[in-house]
Structures are given as structure tokens and as C-alpha cells.
């Protein structure tokens, strides 16, 4: 793909990535989020955080399978969208679910294991977002790669957070977990060398 093609693809992906947030905003403003709009907002933004984490992790395997190294230029934007949705998810929980009652929020973080794990995932995402610029990449050199491997821990924590919070039907978090397992398998050295569609 030529650089111009990548730019267009990036623009299209940017608009698509922003769409769920805009639809949620529109739903909230038009009172169309059901009987418990706050729960819908918190849950949907949580789902989108996890989806964007998985989409970001998909880029390397896609590059490996297709040989399109330009795909890597989409990865940072997708990762930042994961952070954007995580920030929305956390802010909605703090602002609309807990009304800024910091004691209650702190108790939740300490006493409800699924919130503890969610918080851990969020805290680990922050340094990745901060160091996502070209300048930071140059400054950190090899350490940048090491640091950004944290995304694997974050994605696992995201799936565990989801698994722990569902009360009965665990199908959805298990599906996310299976997708994550496949994506992580592509990081194994033996599979990293597999190039089925490349000349
Ligand atoms: C990378 C970080 C995170 C990811 C990937 C994530 C993901 C998710 C997912 C997938 C859901 C379930 C959505 C559904 O039921 O359809 C969820 C729900 C939720 N998350 Fe997170 N989350 C993260 C961080 C956090 C943090 C930092 C907090 C709060 C401190 C939090 C609090 C909640 C709450 C309160 C719910 C709703 C629980 C319920 O309605 O029973 N999450 N999250």
C-alpha cells in the first residue's frame, strides 16, 4: 500500500473508531439508552476498550501474514483509541455511577476484585499512551519495545475484569479470551516465523 493509501485508511479508521462514542453521546442526549443509561454507558465503553485493545493486537499478526508493513502505521492510533475508551469508561464510572464519591470509589477499588483488576489495566495503559509519540519512541529506544509489551498484560487484565463481573453467562468474556489467546499465540517465536501468504 502506498503512503497516500495509508493516509486515507487512517482517516477512515479514525472516523469509524470515533463513531461508537458519538452514537453513545447521541443516545444519551436523546434519552435512547434504555432504563439504565449510566450502566449502558459504562458497559459499552468497557466493551469498546477491550475491542480496541484486541484490534490493536491484531495489527502485528496481520502484517506478518500479509507482509504489509504499512499496517504498523495504524497501530498507534488504534492503541490510543483503546486508551480514549478506557478513559471514558473510567470517567463515566467515577462521574455518573459514583458521583465523585471518592471514598466509595476507593472502597470499590480495594474491595471489589473486578474493579481492582480494571484499575490495574487502566494504570498500566497510561504510560503506554504517554510514550506513544515518535519523540518518546526515539528517547526510550529498546526500552520502548519492552514497555509496550505491557499491552499483553493489560488485555489479559481486561478480559479477567470482564469475566469476573459477569454473574451468570460467561460466553462473551470467554469469546474475548479466546480471541486474545489466538492473538497472543502469534507472539510465540515458532508462529512468528510463519508467513503463509507471502512470496
Ligand atoms: C483497560 C481497562 C478496562 C477494560 C478493558 C474494561 C472493560 C470492561 C468491560 C468489557 C466491561 C463489561 C461490559 C459489559 O458488561 O458488556 C466493563 C464493565 C465495567 N467496568 Fe471496566 N474496563 C476497564 C477498566 C475499568 C476501570 C478502571 C474501572 C473502574 C475503576 C472499571 C469499572 C467497570 C464497571 C463498574 C463496569 C460495569 C459493571 C456492571 O455493570 O456490573 N473498568 N469493563
Question: What is the secondary structure topology, with strand pairs?
Answer:
Elements: H1 3-29, H2 37-66, H3 72-97, H4 102-111, H5 113-130, H6 134-140, H7 142-148, H8 150-165, H9 171-185, H10 189-192
Helix pairs in contact: 1-2, 1-3, 2-3, 2-8, 2-9, 3-5, 4-5, 5-8, 6-7, 8-9
Bound molecules: protoporphyrin IX containing FE (HEM).
Could you explain the architecture of this structure?
The chain has one domain. Helix content is 80%, strand content 0%. The longest helix has 30 residues. The radius of gyration is 18 Å and the shape is globular. The two termini are 16 Å apart. Bound molecules: protoporphyrin IX containing FE (HEM). Protoporphyrin IX containing FE (HEM) binds next to α2, α3, α5 and α8.
Primary descriptors:
199 residues, mainly alpha, binds protoporphyrin IX containing FE
Tell me roughly what share of residues is in helical segments.
over 70%
Number of domains: 1
Shape: globular
pLDDT < 50 stretches: none
C-alpha Rg (nearest Å): 18 Å
What small molecules accompany the polymer chains? protoporphyrin IX containing FE
Span between N and C termini?
Answer: 16 Å
Count of helical stretches: 10
Report mean pLDDT, rounded to a whole number: 95
Oligomer: single chain
Number of DSSP strands?
0
Sheet-strand content, in percent, reads under 5%
Major sheet details: none
The H-and-E topology, N to C, reads as HHHHHHHHHH
Give the class from helix and strand content and strand pairing. Answer: mainly alpha
Amino acid at each position: 500500500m502506498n503512503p497516500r493509501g495509508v493516509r486515507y485508511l487512517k482517516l477512515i479508521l479514525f472516523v469509524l473508531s470515533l463513531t461508537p462514542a458519538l452514537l453513545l453521546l447521541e443516545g444519551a442526549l436523546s434519552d435512547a439508552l434504555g432504563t439504565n443509561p449510566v450502566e449502558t454507558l459504562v458497559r459499552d465503553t468497557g466493551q469498546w476498550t477491550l475491542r480496541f485493545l484486541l484490534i490493536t493486537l491484531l495489527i502485528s499478526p496481520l502484517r506478518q501474514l500479509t507482509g504489509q508493513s504499512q499496517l504498523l502505521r495504524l497501530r498507534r492510533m488504534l492503541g490510543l483509541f483503546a486508551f480514549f475508551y478506557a478513559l471514558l469508561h473510567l470517567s463515566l464510572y467515577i462521574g455518573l455511577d459514583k458521583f465523585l464519591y471518592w471514598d466509595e470509589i476507593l472502597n470499590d477499588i480495594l474491595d471489589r476484585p473486578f474493579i481492582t483488576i480494571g484499575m490495574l489495566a487502566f494504570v498500566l495503559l497510561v504510560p503506554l499512551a504517554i510514550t506513544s509519540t515518535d519523540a518518546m519512541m526515539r528517547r526510550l529506544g529498546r526500552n520502548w519495545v519492552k514497555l509496550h509489551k505491557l499491552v499483553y498484560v493489560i488485555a489479559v487484565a481486561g478480559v479477567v475484569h470482564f469475566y469476573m463481573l459477569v454473574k451468570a453467562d460467561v460466553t462473551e468474556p470467554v469469546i474475548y479470551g479466546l480471541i486474545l489467546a489466538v492473538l497472543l499465540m502469534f507472539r510465540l517465536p515458532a508462529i512468528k516465523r510463519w508467513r503463509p501468504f507471502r512470496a
